[in-house]
Specification:
Layout (H helix, E strand, L loop, with lengths): L6 H17 L20 E6 L2 E2 L4 E7 L8 E5 L2 E2 L2 E4 L3 E5 L7 E7 L2 E10 L6 E7 L2 E7 L1
Parallel strand pairs: 2-9
Antiparallel strand pairs: 1-3, 3-7, 4-5, 4-8, 6-7, 8-9, 10-11
Length: 144
Amino acid sequence: MKRHTTPALTGLMLLLCLFVTLSGCKKKPAITPVTPIPVNTDPAISSFSPTSGRENTVLTIQGKNFSTDFAKVNVTINGKTAPVATLSATKIEVKIPANCGHGFVQVTSDGRSALIDGFTYQYNKITEMLYILQDDKLWAADLF
């Protein structure tokens, strides 16, 4: 048995094939690569306490991005090295060095530094007393 197709049916089939072919050839949108935002790894000091103290008082420094390697961390108070007692990525404890004066606390971690102002060194107050015995009375006076 012979099959006959009409020209209208053949034309319709050709249009259908053309539609399917062209609809599959859509251009895909180009994907633009995203540039990653750099992460800041510099150390940062958010606070320290106490804000004043004497020699060997423990000073606690709060912040972020501190190295946890003692060999890579240096802390100074007004340029005098403060020995590091404990260390984490967010907290450092140091002992206040003698006669370090007033001013800045600086943390250097992996070669990068953070600085904060506001430390006051408390000097030991030396009081001298002057005693005077006069007319069987003892007088005392403070000398600074």
